[in-house]
Amino acid sequence: MSFEWNAHRFSGGVLALDLANTVIFREDRKRCLDRFADPAEVPRFAEAAAIFRNGEWGRVRFHAPKSQDGIKALIDVREVVNRLFRDAAGHARIRADYFSEFLHIGSNVVGEEWSEESLGLPSLSDRIRDLSLGAAAFLSALRLLDPARLERIKICPNCHWLYFDESRNRSRRWCDMNVCGNRAKARRHYVRSLGHAGNDHA
């Protein structure tokens, strides 16, 4: 069953982290869910990403893989991006083994691109660019290796998504205040109400 790839699904702030976040509740085995378990969601994600990541990429078409091997390669990119930046979140370090794997997988994906296509980010040209989703995610991730950007990567304490904190003083706590922030607020209120109820019956 398909669902809506809306703005909340792109709370990561950049394409690389949005791709990593296609698995939700990664750190909770009972709730963990891979949106790409249904291959039909891959092209739907690519189409939505071209809209919600316009500020990062300009006018672009992200091409989703159609074959099983292509989808596996995309998921390999997703998982190595997740490992690299989830480990880096909070202390801005890069593990050598994760980085080596990231470069190896990314170079293979980029090597499949049409040789005449520009891989720069983004272009001011009005021409619509065409890139594979995997290559675009790898290039997006490369930009996050800048130390000033790397230290802004965080993990949402509610849904476990990775997100890029663009706030001036790096004070953003949730991937999406309107969703995860409000859910956390509701949970705190519920816990407090239970405490008050217990006191009433003491």
Automatic annotation (TrEMBL):
Entries under InterPro entries matching the protein: ABATE, ABATE_dom_sf, Znf_CGNR
UniProt-listed PANTHER family: BLL6575 PROTEIN
Protein name: Zinc finger CGNR domain-containing protein
Species of origin: Phyllobacterium endophyticum
Zinc finger CGNR domain mapped to chain residues: 152-192
